[in-house]
Design goal:
mainly beta; Ig-like_fold; IgV_Light_Chain; about 0% helix; Ig-like domain-containing protein; Ig_sub
Length: about 120
């Protein structure tokens, strides 16, 4: 049975709005729903000019081909996405999406985390 319901709009609050880190750092992004969403959550990465890429769902399952440095956890209304050792290629926007109730909380500028990486070059 699908958990999708139409009785109440769920508001997603994602924090922080932006992160500036260095390669090798640990990154944590938090997602809070206005009501419990029973693990019906997914995390996406989007790079400029590209379609969103699914990284984690359910809340801790990796799709095939997604590196183990990406992980997810949480329950009820509170979920967390972690990159254990960030790499340069991880720069981009990250989105939490709930698919517990219709309308789905879709990818939008107000509920994203922008991840920037700084690389220190040494001679």
């Amino acid at each position: 049975v699908s958990p999708l319901e139409t009785s109440q709009i769920i508001v997603i609050t994602q924090t922080p709005e932006s992160l500036s880190v260095s390669p090798g750092d640990r990154v944590t992004i938090n997602c809070k729903a206005s009501n419990g969403i029973d693990n019906a959550v997914a995390w996406y990465q989007q790079k400029s000019g590209q379609a969103p890429k699914l990284l984690i769902y359910g809340p801790s399952t990796h799709p095939s081909g997604i590196p183990d440095r990406f992980s997810g956890s949480g329950s009820g209304a509170d979920y967390t996405f972690t990159i254990s050792r960030v790499e340069a290629e991880d720069a981009g926007d990250y989105y939490c999406q709930q698919h517990y109730r219709v309308p789905l909380t879709v990818i939008q500028s107000g509920t994203k985390t922008s991840l920037q990486l700084f690389t220190l070059y040494r001679n």
